[in-house]
Specification:
With 86 residues, the chain is mainly α. The chain contains two helices and four strands. The strands form two sheets. The chain has a two-stranded antiparallel ribbon.
Length: 86
């Protein structure tokens, strides 16, 4: 926080030793630049077109994992009941 005559202002500084030109930037300016950078990172049209295929593949994989886990649990439950019946 930088201190003015009557208020404090949120600022960021470069604290790296040996920095030839120490940099200070206001919080608002840094946030605006970061938002600008994020806006450049949007998904491509090609990726968006493939989303249904990707989602379907992931869903099928998940259903397969659930089926395997269910089978393992059923076998475990069966073995528990067999052991208790002895």
């Amino acid at each position: 926080m930088a201190k003015g005559r009557t208020e404090r202002y949120a600022r960021y500084w470069c604290w790296q030793k040996g920095c030839a030109h120490p940099i200070g930037i206001s919080r608002d300016e840094l946030e605006a630049q970061f938002k600008g950078l994020l806006s450049l990172m949007g998904p491509t049209a090609e990726f968006l077109a493939q989303m249904p295929l990707i989602a379907a593949r992931e869903w099928e994989g998940r259903k397969g994992r659930i089926a395997k886990e269910s089978e393992v649990l059923s076998r475990h439950e069966f073995s528990m009941h067999s052991a208790a019946a002895r």
